[in-house]
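User: I'm preparing a small set of examples for a lab meeting where we compare how different chains pack in three dimensions. I only have the primary sequence for this one, and I'd like the structure in C-alpha coordinate form so I can line it up with the others. Please keep the answer compact; I'll paste it straight into my notes.
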Amino acid sequence: MNSQKSKSNFISRIKNDSLIIGKKQFDSRLLLGTGKYKNLKIAQESIEISQASIVTVAIRRAQYAKNIGKSNLIDGLNWKKLWLLPNTAGCETADEAIRIAFLGQEISKKIGQINNKFIKLEVISDSKHLLPDPIGTLKAAEYLVKQDFDVLPYIYPDPVLAKQLEEIGCKTVMPLGSPIGSGQGLKNLHNIQIIIDNAKVPVIVDAGIGKASDASHAMEIGASAVLLNTAVANSSKPRNMAEAMRLGVISGRKCYLSGIMEKEKLANASSPKEGLLKLI
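Assistant: Understood. Below is the C-alpha coordinate output for the 280-residue chain.
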Protein backbone atom coordinates (compact mmCIF):
# COMPACT_ATOMS: atom_id res chain seq x y z
CA MET A 1 0.00 0.00 0.00
CA ASN A 2 2.79 2.40 0.93
CA SER A 3 4.69 1.57 -2.26
CA GLN A 4 1.60 2.30 -4.36
CA LYS A 5 1.13 5.63 -2.58
CA SER A 6 4.80 6.49 -3.07
CA LYS A 7 4.55 5.63 -6.77
CA SER A 8 1.40 7.74 -7.10
CA ASN A 9 3.09 10.70 -5.40
CA PHE A 10 6.11 10.41 -7.69
CA ILE A 11 3.94 10.33 -10.83
CA SER A 12 2.01 13.36 -9.57
CA ARG A 13 5.26 15.20 -8.87
CA ILE A 14 6.52 14.50 -12.40
CA LYS A 15 3.27 15.70 -14.00
CA ASN A 16 3.14 18.88 -11.91
CA ASP A 17 6.83 19.65 -12.28
CA SER A 18 6.59 23.07 -13.89
CA LEU A 19 9.41 25.56 -14.28
CA ILE A 20 8.65 28.72 -12.30
CA ILE A 21 10.51 31.96 -13.01
CA GLY A 22 9.34 34.92 -11.00
CA LYS A 23 5.55 34.73 -11.12
CA LYS A 24 5.39 32.80 -14.41
CA GLN A 25 4.94 29.06 -14.76
CA PHE A 26 6.16 27.12 -17.80
CA ASP A 27 5.53 23.54 -18.94
CA SER A 28 8.91 23.00 -20.60
CA ARG A 29 12.37 23.14 -19.04
CA LEU A 30 14.00 23.55 -22.46
CA LEU A 31 14.60 27.15 -23.58
CA LEU A 32 15.52 27.62 -27.21
CA GLY A 33 17.42 30.32 -29.06
CA THR A 34 16.39 31.63 -32.45
CA GLY A 35 19.68 32.41 -34.22
CA LYS A 36 21.75 30.62 -36.85
CA TYR A 37 18.93 28.70 -38.55
CA LYS A 38 19.16 28.37 -42.33
CA ASN A 39 15.71 29.84 -42.82
CA LEU A 40 12.57 30.90 -40.99
CA LYS A 41 10.66 27.69 -41.73
CA ILE A 42 13.30 25.47 -40.12
CA ALA A 43 13.41 27.74 -37.10
CA GLN A 44 9.62 27.67 -36.73
CA GLU A 45 9.38 23.90 -37.09
CA SER A 46 12.32 23.20 -34.76
CA ILE A 47 10.87 25.44 -32.04
CA GLU A 48 7.48 23.76 -32.37
CA ILE A 49 8.94 20.24 -32.21
CA SER A 50 11.07 21.14 -29.19
CA GLN A 51 7.87 22.09 -27.29
CA ALA A 52 9.87 24.88 -25.65
CA SER A 53 7.75 27.37 -23.73
CA ILE A 54 10.36 30.16 -23.79
CA VAL A 55 12.35 31.36 -26.78
CA THR A 56 15.04 33.99 -26.68
CA VAL A 57 15.60 36.64 -29.35
CA ALA A 58 18.59 38.95 -29.67
CA ILE A 59 16.97 42.38 -29.72
CA ARG A 60 19.89 44.10 -31.45
CA ARG A 61 19.51 41.69 -34.37
CA ALA A 62 15.73 41.57 -34.47
CA GLN A 63 15.25 44.96 -36.17
CA TYR A 64 11.56 44.70 -35.53
CA ALA A 65 10.64 48.09 -36.93
CA LYS A 66 12.50 47.52 -40.21
CA ASN A 67 11.30 44.02 -41.06
CA ILE A 68 7.54 43.84 -40.90
CA GLY A 69 6.12 40.62 -42.28
CA LYS A 70 6.55 36.88 -42.00
CA SER A 71 10.20 36.96 -43.05
CA ASN A 72 10.92 38.32 -39.58
CA LEU A 73 11.25 35.72 -36.84
CA ILE A 74 9.40 37.81 -34.27
CA ASP A 75 6.42 38.08 -36.63
CA GLY A 76 6.73 34.42 -37.63
CA LEU A 77 6.19 32.78 -34.21
CA ASN A 78 3.00 32.11 -32.30
CA TRP A 79 3.33 34.30 -29.20
CA LYS A 80 0.09 32.97 -27.76
CA LYS A 81 1.93 29.70 -27.12
CA LEU A 82 5.45 31.02 -26.60
CA TRP A 83 6.93 33.42 -24.07
CA LEU A 84 9.49 35.90 -25.40
CA LEU A 85 12.80 36.19 -23.59
CA PRO A 86 14.46 39.26 -25.12
CA ASN A 87 18.23 39.21 -24.75
CA THR A 88 20.93 41.84 -24.83
CA ALA A 89 23.36 39.84 -26.97
CA GLY A 90 25.94 42.04 -28.65
CA CYS A 91 26.12 44.54 -25.79
CA GLU A 92 29.64 45.25 -24.56
CA THR A 93 28.80 47.54 -21.64
CA ALA A 94 26.23 47.76 -18.87
CA ASP A 95 24.82 50.98 -20.33
CA GLU A 96 24.29 49.35 -23.73
CA ALA A 97 22.57 46.37 -22.14
CA ILE A 98 20.24 48.61 -20.15
CA ARG A 99 19.16 50.50 -23.27
CA ILE A 100 18.52 47.27 -25.17
CA ALA A 101 16.55 45.85 -22.23
CA PHE A 102 14.05 48.71 -22.50
CA LEU A 103 13.76 48.11 -26.25
CA GLY A 104 13.11 44.44 -25.53
CA GLN A 105 10.27 45.41 -23.22
CA GLU A 106 8.68 47.47 -25.99
CA ILE A 107 8.89 44.55 -28.41
CA SER A 108 7.22 42.30 -25.83
CA LYS A 109 4.34 44.78 -25.69
CA LYS A 110 4.05 44.86 -29.49
CA ILE A 111 3.51 41.10 -29.64
CA GLY A 112 0.82 41.30 -26.98
CA GLN A 113 2.82 40.29 -23.91
CA ILE A 114 2.04 43.47 -21.98
CA ASN A 115 3.26 42.16 -18.64
CA ASN A 116 6.43 40.53 -19.97
CA LYS A 117 9.38 42.13 -18.18
CA PHE A 118 11.79 39.25 -18.78
CA ILE A 119 15.27 40.10 -19.99
CA LYS A 120 18.17 37.78 -20.58
CA LEU A 121 21.08 39.97 -19.55
CA GLU A 122 24.30 39.54 -21.54
CA VAL A 123 27.24 41.91 -21.19
CA ILE A 124 30.17 40.62 -23.22
CA SER A 125 33.19 42.82 -23.82
CA ASP A 126 35.50 39.92 -24.72
CA SER A 127 35.06 39.56 -28.49
CA LYS A 128 37.42 36.59 -28.81
CA HIS A 129 36.27 34.19 -26.10
CA LEU A 130 32.80 35.73 -25.62
CA LEU A 131 33.01 35.43 -21.85
CA PRO A 132 30.50 37.54 -19.89
CA ASP A 133 31.72 40.61 -18.02
CA PRO A 134 30.94 40.00 -14.31
CA ILE A 135 31.22 43.64 -13.23
CA GLY A 136 29.16 44.97 -16.13
CA THR A 137 26.57 42.24 -15.62
CA LEU A 138 26.20 43.00 -11.91
CA LYS A 139 25.96 46.75 -12.57
CA ALA A 140 23.28 46.35 -15.25
CA ALA A 141 21.38 43.77 -13.20
CA GLU A 142 21.20 46.08 -10.18
CA TYR A 143 19.70 48.87 -12.27
CA LEU A 144 17.24 46.67 -14.19
CA VAL A 145 15.98 44.93 -11.05
CA LYS A 146 15.20 48.37 -9.59
CA GLN A 147 13.26 49.12 -12.77
CA ASP A 148 11.11 46.05 -12.10
CA PHE A 149 12.60 43.82 -14.80
CA ASP A 150 12.70 40.06 -14.33
CA VAL A 151 16.43 39.71 -14.91
CA LEU A 152 17.95 36.41 -16.10
CA PRO A 153 21.72 37.05 -16.14
CA TYR A 154 24.15 35.05 -18.27
CA ILE A 155 27.36 34.50 -16.30
CA TYR A 156 30.59 32.59 -16.08
CA PRO A 157 29.99 29.86 -13.47
CA ASP A 158 31.24 31.90 -10.53
CA PRO A 159 29.34 30.81 -7.36
CA VAL A 160 30.06 34.12 -5.59
CA LEU A 161 28.71 36.23 -8.46
CA ALA A 162 25.71 33.91 -8.81
CA LYS A 163 24.78 34.43 -5.16
CA GLN A 164 25.27 38.21 -5.44
CA LEU A 165 22.94 38.35 -8.45
CA GLU A 166 20.36 36.29 -6.62
CA GLU A 167 20.55 38.53 -3.56
CA ILE A 168 19.95 41.73 -5.54
CA GLY A 169 16.77 40.21 -6.96
CA CYS A 170 17.56 38.37 -10.22
CA LYS A 171 14.91 35.78 -11.01
CA THR A 172 17.43 33.17 -12.20
CA VAL A 173 21.15 32.74 -12.74
CA MET A 174 22.40 31.32 -16.05
CA PRO A 175 25.93 29.91 -15.84
CA LEU A 176 27.61 28.82 -19.05
CA GLY A 177 28.45 25.15 -19.48
CA SER A 178 31.28 26.04 -21.87
CA PRO A 179 31.92 28.85 -24.38
CA ILE A 180 29.00 30.04 -26.52
CA GLY A 181 28.46 27.93 -29.62
CA SER A 182 31.34 25.57 -28.80
CA GLY A 183 29.32 22.41 -28.17
CA GLN A 184 31.90 21.34 -25.58
CA GLY A 185 29.31 20.37 -22.98
CA LEU A 186 29.67 20.94 -19.23
CA LYS A 187 33.30 21.94 -18.80
CA ASN A 188 32.63 23.83 -15.56
CA LEU A 189 30.73 21.07 -13.81
CA HIS A 190 32.11 21.58 -10.30
CA ASN A 191 31.28 25.30 -10.18
CA ILE A 192 27.86 24.76 -11.73
CA GLN A 193 27.09 22.18 -9.07
CA ILE A 194 28.06 24.63 -6.32
CA ILE A 195 25.77 27.27 -7.85
CA ILE A 196 22.87 24.79 -8.03
CA ASP A 197 23.40 23.62 -4.45
CA ASN A 198 23.45 27.20 -3.10
CA ALA A 199 20.74 28.78 -5.23
CA LYS A 200 17.20 29.61 -4.14
CA VAL A 201 16.26 30.69 -7.67
CA PRO A 202 16.18 28.54 -10.81
CA VAL A 203 19.60 27.76 -12.32
CA ILE A 204 19.53 27.57 -16.11
CA VAL A 205 22.59 26.13 -17.82
CA ASP A 206 23.19 28.29 -20.87
CA ALA A 207 25.79 27.88 -23.65
CA GLY A 208 28.04 25.03 -24.69
CA ILE A 209 25.38 22.31 -24.93
CA GLY A 210 26.29 20.22 -27.96
CA LYS A 211 24.22 17.06 -27.71
CA ALA A 212 21.23 15.62 -25.91
CA SER A 213 23.38 13.89 -23.31
CA ASP A 214 24.82 17.31 -22.33
CA ALA A 215 21.32 18.64 -21.75
CA SER A 216 20.38 15.52 -19.81
CA HIS A 217 23.54 15.76 -17.69
CA ALA A 218 22.75 19.36 -16.73
CA MET A 219 19.29 18.32 -15.60
CA GLU A 220 20.62 15.26 -13.75
CA ILE A 221 22.77 17.42 -11.48
CA GLY A 222 19.78 19.56 -10.54
CA ALA A 223 19.68 22.42 -13.04
CA SER A 224 16.20 23.88 -13.37
CA ALA A 225 16.39 24.23 -17.14
CA VAL A 226 18.69 24.35 -20.15
CA LEU A 227 18.98 27.04 -22.81
CA LEU A 228 20.56 26.15 -26.14
CA ASN A 229 20.62 27.27 -29.75
CA THR A 230 23.61 26.27 -31.89
CA ALA A 231 23.28 22.54 -31.15
CA VAL A 232 19.91 22.53 -32.90
CA ALA A 233 20.37 25.26 -35.52
CA ASN A 234 23.75 23.97 -36.77
CA SER A 235 22.88 20.27 -36.77
CA SER A 236 22.32 18.42 -40.04
CA LYS A 237 18.70 17.81 -39.08
CA PRO A 238 17.54 20.61 -36.77
CA ARG A 239 14.03 19.25 -36.36
CA ASN A 240 15.32 15.85 -35.20
CA MET A 241 17.85 17.49 -32.89
CA ALA A 242 15.13 19.67 -31.36
CA GLU A 243 13.21 16.50 -30.49
CA ALA A 244 16.36 14.87 -29.09
CA MET A 245 17.01 17.89 -26.85
CA ARG A 246 13.42 17.87 -25.63
CA LEU A 247 13.70 14.22 -24.64
CA GLY A 248 17.16 14.73 -23.12
CA VAL A 249 15.86 17.45 -20.80
CA ILE A 250 12.86 15.34 -19.77
CA SER A 251 15.04 12.28 -19.17
CA GLY A 252 17.57 14.19 -17.09
CA ARG A 253 14.89 15.85 -14.98
CA LYS A 254 13.12 12.55 -14.26
CA CYS A 255 16.45 10.99 -13.37
CA TYR A 256 17.19 13.80 -10.91
CA LEU A 257 13.75 13.60 -9.30
CA SER A 258 14.01 9.83 -9.00
CA GLY A 259 17.13 9.99 -6.84
CA ILE A 260 20.35 8.86 -8.48
CA MET A 261 22.24 6.04 -6.78
CA GLU A 262 25.58 6.91 -5.21
CA LYS A 263 28.70 5.65 -6.92
CA GLU A 264 30.57 2.76 -5.33
CA LYS A 265 34.33 2.21 -5.42
CA LEU A 266 33.93 -1.55 -5.83
CA ALA A 267 31.54 -3.85 -7.62
CA ASN A 268 28.34 -4.58 -5.74
CA ALA A 269 26.40 -7.66 -6.84
CA SER A 270 22.80 -6.95 -7.77
CA SER A 271 21.71 -10.42 -6.63
CA PRO A 272 21.75 -11.20 -2.87
CA LYS A 273 23.96 -13.99 -1.58
CA GLU A 274 21.24 -15.25 0.73
CA GLY A 275 19.03 -18.04 -0.52
CA LEU A 276 21.41 -19.40 -3.14
CA LEU A 277 20.85 -22.98 -4.24
CA LYS A 278 23.43 -25.35 -2.80
CA LEU A 279 25.21 -27.42 -5.40
CA ILE A 280 25.75 -31.07 -4.48
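A couple of notes for your slides: Residues 166 and 200 are 8 Å apart (CA to CA). Residues 238-258 form the longest helix (21 residues).

User: Perfect, thanks.
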